[in-house]
Amino acid sequence: GENVEQHPSTLSVQEGDSAVIKCTYSDSASNYFPWYKQELGKRPQLIIDIRSNVGEKKDQRIAVTLNKTAKHFSLHITETQPEDSAVYFCAASGKEYGNKLVFGAGTILRVKS
Amino acid sequence: EAGVAQSPRYKIIEKRQSVAFWCNPISGHATLYWYQQILGQGPKLLIQFQNNGVVDDSQLPKDRFSAERLKGVDSTLKIQPAKLEDSAVYLCASSLGLGGYEQYFGPGTRLTVT
Question: At A104, is the pLDDT very low, low, confident or very high (cuts 50, 70, 90)?
Fold first, then answer.
């Protein structure tokens, strides 16, 4: 089945700096890659997603890049703010396994002001 | 638009007892998911329904866990008997359909087994 690895497990940045979180996946048939943000004690919320027919997608300060050949995708947050502090999860899914989402282990992002 | 509803929000039980969780998905969402999220880990899919049929339950411990989605709307997840390692947050999510649709999560039920 699909396996998703996520790095780093924790990331501390100064306010205003950029943050990058990387994920690799094992199933070359995966075609949908969402990123979720989860604040302490709250539900995961989708912040951005990308499909396998696109290499990059941006939404204001957030961007995701996908390298299908290398089977990895990354989340980029620019001009980080204290409210960006949360746990970020990447995930992957594809038709091969019933389109179920397989999540990475998560990255704790701390933005220091 | 109302979000995914779950109840209860918190539950404390002793091992070997049984417990049930309820989920009401967003209206019109055909696909419903139950996830288990252990502290410090990402959500793990337990079972996935498309309308009232099971699409994937490969990671559901069927000797103790069961789930149903009668009439293709609300769903219940049951654990009987509970073990200490079942302590986790149980998240319900729904989406319009299979394959690349955004999944909307409910607030979760935090289960503590003592």
Answer: very high
